[in-house]
Structures are given as structure tokens and as C-alpha cells.
Amino acid sequence: MELIRNFEHNKKLRGSFNELATNTFGISFEDWYEKGFWTEKYSPFSIVQNEKIIANVSANKVELIINNEKKRGIQIGTVMTHPDFRKLGLSRKLMEIVLEHYENQYDFMYLFANSTVLDFYPKFGFKRVPEHQFTMNIPSRIIPVRRVTKLNGTDSEVLNRIFQYSRGRLPVSFIFGSENSQELLMFYCLNVFSQDIYYIDDLDLFTIHMHDGETLHLFDVISQKEVTISDVINRIANEDTKNVVFHYTPDYGDIVISKKLIDTENDVLFIKIKNNLDLPEYFKHPITVQA
């Protein structure tokens, strides 16, 4: 067994990495790589045996905006071990290596854990932190104005257009948001929300949203200028929409927001903070920056 890094351009090792990711999470990074979105910001730390990747912990460099201040974030993700090599302490070993490697390079290290590993990450100094879900009701007086164009998130031209535009975007929130995270956004456009991407011509912005009965789920608003969110909602709501769920921390002055604690044992946020960083009392990490 040996530790390897920076292997993304090695087709055989990248294929092994994707195979393990597919078997573990049902995801592949191949399209993301082929389209040029796998950059130095995403760094897998992997253990290889016989030219096969058997365990991995990845680090994502994320520039966070917290309470209107820029912070250096490291987001841990793609934590996986081949079934034949579990219970050998490989994840622990990799976590220790990652923590040591980034010791002086972050203000805020974090990850999202599922119910099977909630006791694992506190061993490394991570603390569970609650998130909140933010919603708003749609006033009955709103008459939707349909001025949106649905885009195909699997189309290379569309993806490149969004990628180039998003390089100059504003953070979705200055309470808790990020900037320069377009590579993670593109992973979601490719693999999660490929049929939920829209362009609003008269506002010159993109949204990622979907309808579920009376609920409008808003995952991201990608804009290069300050947004009046009621104008956006007027264009993406339909006649049945009665409420909006924000999958990030809304930071708008033109609407009334409700909030509630997210009570879940999956996608639980764990944080390791340095430099006396104060978190907002209520926040939701933006979904399109979640690794």
C-alpha cells in the first residue's frame, strides 16, 4: 500500500478512483474531469494497492464568505474505502495525513457526514454544528411572469457559458456563502441539476430550481450583480407555487423569511474552526458548494 496524490491525469488511476466512487456513492468524476473542471482545488489523498485505489479522503479548497468576511475553507469529501479493506484504519490514517498537510492553510475545515460515521469525525476535533432551513411564503397577489429559458446541463456550450459567467458571480449570500467555487458548481450542473438550470434574460442571471407541488426549491442564484429576489421568484414561480425553500442562506432585504432547524442524521455538518471564527447564529451552507 502507498499514498498517492495528483493522479487525475493518470487514466488508469483516475478510472480506479471513479470506480470506487461509483460503487460507494453512485457518482463519477469523469465528465467533470473531461470538461476541465477538476482543478488543483480538488485534491484526493488516496491509498493504492496493485494499481487500484482502495481508500480515499479528498480536500476541496473553498473560499468562504462568513459574516461578510473572507475565510479560507477546506472541505473534506469523497471519503471512501473499498469493502475488502474496511476496518483497517485507512480512513483514519488518511484523515490524519490531510489534517497535517493543511494544518496552517485554513480558518475553517468542515465536512458533511452520514448517519454511519457521526462518531468518527469528533475524534479529529470536528464538532457537529446545526444548520437551518429557510423558507418564504408566496403572497397570493404575485402573478408569475414567465421569462425563463430552460438549459441543458449536459451540453458543453451551456456548461462553458455558465462556468465563464460564474467566475464573476457574486456570492449567493454574504452571511454564509462562497466565491470562486465554480468548479463545484459545475459538478452539480453536470451530475445533480442538469435538468434544473434556467437563464433569466431580462435579469441576466442563472437559477437552479425545481418545482415540487406547491413548493419551489431554489438551489442557487448565479448573478454578477445584486439580486432583488422577489423579481427572480416572480419569473420562476408558477401558478401553484405557495412557498419557496432556499437551499442556502438567503441574504435579501425585500422578503420575509422563516427558518427552522434541520433535524437529520444524514448530511450532518461537522466543523473544525481555527482563529476564533464566529459563525452566524442561523445559516445553511450553499448546496452547490457542498462536496
From TrEMBL:
InterPro entries: Acyl_CoA_acyltransferase, GNAT_dom, YpeA/RimI_acetyltransf. It comes from the Bacteria. PROSITE patterns: GNAT (PS51186). Keywords: Acyltransferase, Transferase. Residues 2-141 form the N-acetyltransferase domain. The keyword Transferase applies. The lineage of its organism: Bacteria, Bacillati, Bacillota, Bacilli, Bacillales. It comes from Niallia circulans (Bacillus circulans). This is N-acetyltransferase domain-containing protein.
